[in-house]
Amino acid sequence: MKKTLLWISLIVIAGTMLSACSNSSSPAPSLVGTWKLVSYNSTPALPDVDTVITFDAERVGGTVGCNSFGGDYKIDGGQIVFGEVVSTMMACDDARMEQEASVFAVFVDTAVFKMDGDTLTITTADSQYYVVLAKK
């Protein structure tokens, strides 16, 4: 009788533990840190341009070619919801301006993100634009 009660108790405890594990949601990946631009829309980042994109808990900012930029963001599941992102308005050569415009096109409204190790890919909701970043 004692063995039967022991087995029933163990089965109940194991079931409770498995249920608790399957109901726990894993935390959203953290974007916090400093990143560099690897590519945008299948175009490699300009090799002679130091790019810096920094995510803190609520803000994103940096430079990807010519101008400094910054704005608010929040994570909602696998999406990033960007607030207004503002930048300085300097003019640079065409290649830098194209790179910058392509990155800024991703940091608008809601975008989808995926992390794979130290690589972060952010894609616009309509999948028209994307950037690939690497952790610095």
Structure keywords:
eight-stranded antiparallel barrel, 2 helices
Overview of this structure, please?
This protein is of the alpha+beta class. It has one domain (33-135): Beta Barrel (Lipocalin), CATH 2.40.128. It is built from two helices and nine strands; from the N terminus they run αββββββαβββ. It has an eight-stranded antiparallel beta barrel. A hairpin with a 2-residue loop joins β5 and β6 (79-87). The longest helix has 22 residues, at 2-23. The chain starts with a helix and ends with a strand. Mean pLDDT is 86; it is low at 4-24.
Instruction: Return the CATH topology.
Output: Lipocalin
How many whole angstroms does the radius of gyration measure? 22 Å
CATH architecture: Beta Barrel
Alpha-carbon distance between the two ends: 62 Å
Helix content: 25-40%
The parts where pLDDT drops under 50 for at least 5 residues are: 4-24
Q: What is the count of DSSP helices, taking H or I runs of 4+ residues?
A: 2
What is the level 1 CATH name? Mainly Beta
